[in-house]
Amino acid sequence: MNLAIKFLAALLFVFSSNVSYSADLQRSEVVEMLKQADKDHPANLRRKDLTKLDLSGLDFRNADLWGADLRGANLSHSNFSGLVLDLTVMVAVNLEGANLSNVSIFGVSMMRSNLRNANLSGSRVIAILDNSDLSNADLSNVKWGADMKNQSMGLMRASLKKVNLSGANISNADLGRAMLRHADLSGANLQNASLYSASLEGADFSRADLRNADFTHAKVTDADFTGAKLTGAIFKNIKGTDSARGLDLGKANQGK
Predict the structure, then answer these.
(1) pTM of the model
(2) What confidence tens digit (pLDDT) does each residue in 160-203 have?
(3) Which residues contact 149 (CB under 8 A, 6 or more apart)?
């Protein structure tokens, strides 16, 4: 186990080992803090325990949520655009329809979370989202690829194992080296996306738009490409083509 995995695993253990949920604030208190906040004087929710609170429909753009515990909270249709949400705890959080455009989320577990129809366009995310629902989400222009210039702790990358990305807009996204094993990307738009060296074993790309997507060095063992649009897609030096279904390389640019 490399240092990156140990780091994220340690964070998850620390926060999940506390089985009691006792929020520091109530919704009414959070609402009042947000009303009084501005850019120069943000609402101080830093490291606050907000577990299981109903905070749906709120505007958090003038809040400091660094390191806050949001496990099980209802944050659906709330606005977090442009915020730094590094080291927050968001296991099983409800962010359906939330605005998370241009946010930074680093060193976070978001497993089993609801992000259906959420807007994450332009975001920078290095987090564990395994078993989460991002169906029909906007992931256009996301920067979720591993930063190979900053890997002192080992490979830090987005983990999206068994994630539902069906119907999502993932166009122009960077998912380089991301973990997408057994992810559902059926019907998703991945035009011009980078999946360089990504782990795509067992992923479902059926009916997906993969035009001009870059799969160089990706692992596609048991992946399903049935009915996918492959015009201009790059499949150079990929692994697992023998077991990939529906992958007609004659329709794609193999990078030769």
Answers:
(1) 0.88
(2) 999 999 999 999 999 999 999 999 999 999 999 999 999 999 99
(3) none
Residue with structure tokens 């959070």? 30
148: its two tokens: 């190979």
Beta strands in the chain (DSSP E): 43-44, 63-64, 104-109, 124-128
Determine contact, residues 136/118, Cβ cutoff 8 Å.
no
The DSSP letter of residue 242 is T
SS3 99: strand
Instruction: Please answer whether residues 37 and 62 qualify as being in contact, where contact means their C-beta atoms are separated by less than 8 angstroms.
Output: yes
Q: How many Å apart are CA 184 and CA 200, to the nearest integer?
A: 10
DSSP string spanning 201-223?
Answer: TT-B-TT-B-TT-B-TT-B-TT-
Using one digit for the tens of pLDDT, what is the confidence trace for 59-118?
A: 999 999 999 999 999 999 999 999 999 999 999 999 999 999 999 999 899 999 999 999
What percent of the chain is helix, strand and coil (3-state, nearest 5)?
10, 20, 70
